[in-house]
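Session log. Operator J.P. requested a structure for one protein chain; no other inputs attached. Running the standard single-chain path with token output.
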Amino acid sequence: MKYFKNIEEKIAAVILVAMISIVFLEVAVRPFGIALGYLTEIVPDLFVWLVMLGSAAAFNSGMHLSMSALTDKLPRKAAQVIFFIGALVTISFLLTIGISSLRIIHISIANNETNALGIPQWIMSAALPVGCFLGAIRAVQFMMRTRKSATVNN
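Structure written below.
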């Protein structure tokens, strides 16, 4: 289980290296008249995966933007209640978007493959539901770890 603790960060790091490598390769071979433009088709899709995995990783470490000006001035119990309500709203939002975005995958399966590389389109479309579900799981984990404290900062 320890291996999965920061799995989003590990996958995001691989994606970032892949994105940089693809763009660098495209620019490096351009002066030689070699066109690798088809490779850059995947970069925007990888960026979406990077953002969604990074968002889940931020939930895991409690690094998402939060407004603590109000809760810092409240008594400990009240701050805990506000934090809990905020966490539940966030988790509900992520689950709603995740479930709703499953339809995107269904539509993407019908659209078959990307134009240049022939990659199944559903793989690229899966970033949103996967990111939302991972984010919801990580938000629950963070909420459970910090439920005793009044602040969200570790």
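Operator note: The chain is about 70% helix and 0% strand.
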